[in-house]
Amino acid sequence: MTNCAKNRSHDNSKNRPQDGSKNRPDIINPVSLCCVVGKESLKGLLIAKKQVPWSSRVRLLGLLLLLDYICRNLKNGIISISADLAHQFVSKLRKRDNATTITEPLMVLVQIGILQIVRPAVYAHVKASAVYRFGESYCKKQLPLEVVLTPKLAEKRASAPARCEKRLNRKFPWREQLLADLSLVSFSDSARQIIARDLSNKGSENLRRLVSAVDGQDHSVKVSERGQITTSISSCPRALQPHLLLDGEPTLSCDISNAHWGFLPLILAKRLDHVSSEPGREKYMNDGWREHRRLVDLLSDSDFYRIWCADPQNDDERDEKKNILNVLLNSRNEDGEQNFLYRKIRGDFPITFRIIEDIKHNDHRNLSKQLHRFTADTVAAALLEVQREGIAAIPHVDALICQMKNRERVCDVISRQIFVVTGVRCRVGGIRYSPATEHEKPILAVNPVQAKPLEPANAGHLARSEWVLPSHAELSGKNAQTVFLFGELNDCARGVLKPYRPLTEHEQDLLRRKGMEHDPLIIEALNIFEGRSVG
Fold first, then answer.
1. Which of 160, 178, 240, 493 has the fewest CB atoms below 10 angstroms from its CB?
2. Cα 337 from chain centre
3. In the chain, how long is the greatest CA-to-CA distance?
């Protein structure tokens, strides 16, 4: 130190404990990575492709950690990885220095040629991350690297499993509690005899994994690209399911009756909403909503499969019709055309089946993807709701496994989730849903006296109703409940119903000529359809 230099306390190494070897183990023990490019080569590629903000030391190391993860998790030369997962290794750029700068780490690796996109991400009924592979120059070479990580990166790498759990729990809010509930699953004494007998049979690997997971408390939870929740007990044989215990108490399965058929009104409603803005489709819309109401009533008032039986009381015939109808619904259009029962149902609901056949035109699996997604979302929503009430439940395809004492409540929650989405009062666990709860009574029985004054001729909107406006004159003596669909009750409660077309001048004149511009029923209906709350 020169005479003119100041004597600073931090110049003394003993005053910088953060730089000691105890706090910087990565300096002594560099990390071994498996990559396809070296640090300096990666930096050169980034600068050459005008991605200079990514060439800092921290971001270079983050990209190398990301490449290491990709190398170690390749399957058949490809990997499916989300942007959210990539951010666990290196954060996205928050600001661009120019228009050519790429902010996402995966995309910058694509830009410089290290990665190639095999399939873009899908976010529809099937939700899947993008699929990548290494570029031709990198697919056959892997380089062992020794890198020195910054303290923050070293800490993040050490806590990777815990951060992964937090990320998954954030993405699926029911996951953490579900893993806790799975740890409460056990077998009854009577189950051990069944297990001992079946373990000696061929193909008992799934049973061995099930027993190992339950007895060893080593459970897992996965979510398919169609949203279906799979747990370590999803492979439980049917004969063994009645012998499962949850927190030491017997269990049962609350499953949805005719689950796939029950979501057809939702598909019909979505298509009608889609074409509602097209001019000249009024007749199609009106016919479609009338059919929607008939379909909802059919699915709500009886056992759907028994309706098509020659002897509705015959359980064997009912099971046979169930198998046939589910196969026909998800099979190719040509196969359904050859079946008399399929043609009969299609004749009763022509608009619905034209939509279904249009969905299956190029690939018959497109329909099952939608139906699986609707079912999975319903089960996941019901699972989260019962968890918030402190009820332990395990998802199993289109059902929730719960303790017997919680059967009615769990069935009610699943049914209400379906009712809110489709308007169908379905049967879950043998219990038919009744929507007349304290919360829904004001919606089911709209009181005209409580209507907010509104000039309907100037309202200019008609919401999703199965009735054309010229027929509103017929409604003056009907129950106000028929003005809107059951499927829209939840929207009505929130006051967020969307109108689907403006009233024509002819329709407005009709209201005036019929003296209905002050009719309380019409005023209440238009209040609801304008997006105002009832009350």
1. 160
2. 32
3. 108
Q: How many CA atoms lie within 13 A of 12 on its CB side?
A: 6
Q: Are 524 and 530 in contact (CB under 8 A)?
A: no
Contact partners, residue 315, CB within 8 Å, separation at least 6:
none
Token pair belonging to 277: 């803005």
* Angle at the Cα of 362 from the Cα atoms of 357 and 364, rounded to 5 degrees: 60
Q: What angle do CA 65, 69, 75 make, to 5 degrees?
A: 160
The DSSP output letter for 15 is G
In whole angstroms, what is the distance from residue 147 CA to residue 32 CA? 7
Q: Give per-residue pLDDT as tens, 227-255.
A: 999 999 998 888 899 999 999 999 999 99
List CB contacts of 252: < 8 A, sequence separation 6 or more: 242, 401, 402, 404, 407, 429
Q: Could you tell me which residues come within 8 angstroms of residue 291 by beta carbon, excluding any fewer than 6 positions away?
A: 268, 349, 350, 351, 352
| Vertex 135: Cα angle to 130 and 140 (nearest 5) | 120
Contact call for residues 427 and 257 (beta carbons, < 8 A)? yes
The residue ranges of every structural domain in the chain are 18-166, 172-433, 441-529
- Residue-wise pLDDT tens digits, 346-396: 999 999 999 999 999 999 999 999 999 999 999 999 999 999 999 999 999
Question: What is the spatial distance between Cα 103 and Cα 369, in angstroms, rounded to a whole number?
Answer: 33
Alpha helices in 330-431 (DSSP H): 333-337, 340-348, 350-359, 365-388, 407-422
**Res 441: pLDDT:** 45
CA distance 211 to 185: 11
User: With contact defined as beta carbons under 8 Å apart, do 264 and 420 qualify?
Assistant: no
pLDDT, position 487: 37
Query: What SS3 state is found at 174?
Result: coil
Element (H, E) at 25: helix 25-28
The pLDDT score that the predictor gives to residue 144 is 87
What radius of gyration do the chain's Cα atoms show? 30
What does the DSSP 8-state code read for residue 361?
S
Report in angstroms the alpha-carbon separations of 473 from 27, 68, 440: 84, 71, 27
pLDDT bucket at 498, cuts 50 / 70 / 90: very low
Separation in Å, CA 444 to CA 447, 481, 488, 489: 9, 6, 11, 8
Using CA atoms, how far apart are residues 236 and 392, in angstroms rounded to an integer? 18
**Angle 203-207-208 (CA atoms, 0-180°, nearest 5)?**
100
Query: For 387, how many CA atoms within 13 A lie in the half-sphere containing its CB?
Result: 21
What is the rounded average pLDDT of the residues 322-336?
Answer: 91
pTM here is 0.74
Q: Is the CB of residue 413 less than 8 Å from the CB of residue 382?
A: yes
